[in-house]
Amino acid sequence: MPPARKHTPWRTVPLPPDWASEVRPRILARDPRCRLRTHCWGARSVEVDHGDLGPDDHSDANLRGVCARCHAHRTGQQGASAANERRPKRLRPRDGRHPGIQ
Ligand SMILES: [Zn+2]
Q: Region labeled Disordered — which residues (predicted)?
């Protein structure tokens, strides 16, 4: 198998120190079934996702228990959008002629 491609993680905001011991178990207890349900029909929650308030808001209102499948899809989208942000908006200026046209 080829080595994993190196990439910049989209998560630049660190999780709080009590994330694993306090926050995560509390949210999973509150949301025993997946709250996303984009790729399941209420599977058991095993991970905690950050909602629309952003990845640096660790309040209970922004956190939700999700299943592995929905979470993987969601974090994949977040990584893709972060990569899109780093990409230049256009490769060549909007004005001017196409370089192939003389
Ligand atoms: Zn799910």
A: 72-102
